[in-house]
Design goal:
245 residues, alpha+beta, Immunoglobulin-like, nine-stranded antiparallel β-sheet, 9 strands, elongated
Length: 245
């Protein structure tokens, strides 16, 4: 008969085999539902030069908020939506620079479950129209687990990760459309010829020293008043009284 201790060891061994089987199956399921991102060579999300962009549009799919700019007949940027009389050209140019600078940091091996990346119902849609009729569309999903990037998918490709700070610089146009205000700066037009100042300075009047007139009056010398001198008067002799016999 098999000893009881041997049965216990066989049971423990069977438990370990079962745990190993379920752990392997769990890992395979995780890889299928959450493919591991692979570092890809540096590539641009929109592989197009900024001068070739005819228009671009950003849509917030949740609220329906939209901003769109396009070049006019003179090649200048003009705000189409929302409508405005004046367009902040500098803000548009900055957004175009950001659009053409967005780089893919990593790509998923498989598409997997798009709901895990917020791509089943994308939060934003960016459409870039290129001169000649080409069009590029990017669907923006949810932020990554570390909040350092966004999951983005182009038609026919696997989800990719784009740095959050770069994409936020483009998405901010939804809350701050490139609307400018009219400013008028008065200008002064000067006609005619201005006379050049003379290089020879004008002579200054010469100051003459005016002496004070000399006084010709003669001041008489001071006169002294003679002081009367006191004269001594001789005293009269007082008769001496003679005693009687």
């Amino acid at each position: 008969m098999v000893k009881r201790q041997t049965w216990i060891l066989l049971a423990v061994f069977a438990v370990f085999i079962g745990l190993a089987f379920f752990w392997t199956k769990y890992q395979n399921n995780m890889k299928t539902s959450h493919p591991t991102p692979t570092v890809t060579p540096v590539q641009d999300l929109f592989a197009v030069d900024g001068t070739a962009i005819a228009s671009f549009k950003i849509v917030d799919n949740g609220s329906g908020m939209t901003v769109m700019v396009a070049r006019d007949a003179n090649g200048q940027w003009s705000l189409v939506e929302p409508q405005a009389q004046y367009t902040d050209i500098a803000s548009v140019e900055a957004a175009v620079t950001q659009l053409t600078s967005l780089q893919v940091t990593s790509s998923l091996e498989e598409s997997g479950n798009l709901a895990d990346y917020g791509l089943d119902k994308p939060a934003y849609t960016i459409t870039v129209n290129v001169n000649g009729g080409g069009q590029l569309v990017a669907q923006v999903g949810s932020p990554t687990a570390t909040s350092s990037g966004y999951y983005v998918q182009m038609p026919g490709s696997v989800p990719q990760i784009i740095p959050k700070y770069g994409l936020d610089a483009v998405l901010k146009l939804l809350k701050n459309p490139p609307i400018a205000t009219a400013t008028s700066t008065p200008t002064t037009v000067i006609t005619g010829t201005l006379a050049a100042p003379s290089s020879t300075p004008s002579s200054l009047p010469v100051l003459t020293d005016i002496s004070a007139p000399a006084s010709t009056a003669t001041v008489p010398p001071p006169t002294s008043t003679p002081v009367p001198q006191a004269t001594a008067t001789p005293l009269a002799a007082t008769p001496t009284e003679t005693a009687k016999p």
